Amino acid sequence: MTGTANIRELITRNIRTSGIYLAFIAIIAVFAIWTDGKLLSPGNVTNLVLQYSYILILAIGMVMVIIAGHIDLSVGSVVAFTGAVSAVVVIRHDMPWWVGVLAALGVGSLIGAWQGFWVAFVGIPAFITTLSGMLLFRGLTWVTLDNISLSPFPAEYQNIANGFFNGVLGGNGYDVFTLVVFAIALLGYFYSTYRTRRSRIAYEQPVEAFPLFIVKLVVVSFVVMWFAWQLANARGLPFVLIILAALIIIYSLVTQRTVFGRHVYAIGGNLSAAMLSGVKVKWVNFGVMLNMGILASVAGVVFSSRMNSAQPSAGNMFELDAIAACFIGGAAVTGGVGRVTGAMVGGLIMAVMSNGMSLLGVDQSMVQIVKGLVLLLAVAFDVYNKRRAGAR
């Protein structure tokens, strides 16, 4: 098979995954032009990271839920409830900030286990279980906060979502530490990508031509270091970006390189075959829901830190943004398909559109209309691809 044929096959088999990156670039270019470059200014790039980090954290857990063939409608309420628990511990009872974080994570774990029990062992569909959870945990948020907001958090807690590494290695008008961190991460990406390519060649799997491989690395390097330069010229490296990057790396490895991850894909792709193959379906489903509860509590800590308060209405509609990020990023409605990186790109597409329209002064109602249409088109594209594949 020629190099050209290999490339054509890769594009055909992964058209949606490839297309989402091109769509992301196109959306950035369009809004950069419409906003006269404001979208890509150092300050705005930093704000994008800070304002949408909690949605991206939720999307990491949600994509695993969707791959397994489920859906979780309760994450917005869990964000609110865990943030409320943290606020009560830290603000009302004057405990150290880290005790509040641990309390939120503990409650999130219990919530994930609670919902995992009903889904995995009782057999109630996740849609119904989490719809119940959406109501239950919203009500518990109101009870916990006595239906009022709690603020402010101590400075250490606020720094979780609002703090920066800046000036660690010095710099003349920019933060050298940020550039160094991104450069090291880029070297790690090069090494991982090169190893993956060699492995695919060893197993006689199709790979792109070497010149195209080099071009891809150059483009990725440019984008990553440009992003690092923007952050370095604003306020430095956000703490929350480190948290998000660590979660992306960990969950990418979990979904792609572990037995548990393969079992999640197997259950979503073909439940009957997974059961016949000896997959412990109940425990895998329990683990998926437990994990979602934990990540929702992480998002709850980040959001309450960002807002410097716990609010009864916190997390409203977050579940829909997280679900939309996953589907736009390539997850299949029927399960068995999706990637953490795809969900991140889907979430960033939603973030760029929301932020870009906000900079243009577009009414919030129109923003919701556009986001709804984008989600509909993304799912329609998935259905179209499946029908075309079935026809062949």
What attributes does this structure have?
about 400 residues; ABC transporter involved in vitamin B12 uptake, BtuC; 2 strands; about 75% helix
Assign a percent range to the helix content.
over 70%
CATH topology annotation: ABC transporter involved in vitamin B12 uptake, BtuC
CATH first level: Mainly Alpha
Instruction: Kindly provide the radius of gyration, computed on alpha-carbon positions and rounded to a whole number of angstroms.
Output: 21 Å
Multimerization state: single chain
Uncertain spans: none
Number of domains: 1
Question: Would you identify the CATH architecture?
Answer: Orthogonal Bundle
Compute the separation of the termini in Å.
Answer: 21 Å
Strand arrangement within the widest β-sheet reads 1-2
**Content of β-strand:** under 5%
Output mean pLDDT: 87
- What is the string of helix and strand elements? HHHHHHHEHHEHHHHHHH
**Count of DSSP E strands?**
2
What overall geometry do the principal axes of the alpha carbons give?
A: globular
In DSSP terms (H or I, runs of 4 or more residues), the helix count works out at 16
Q: Major β-sheet, in short?
A: 2 strands, antiparallel
Structural class: mainly alpha
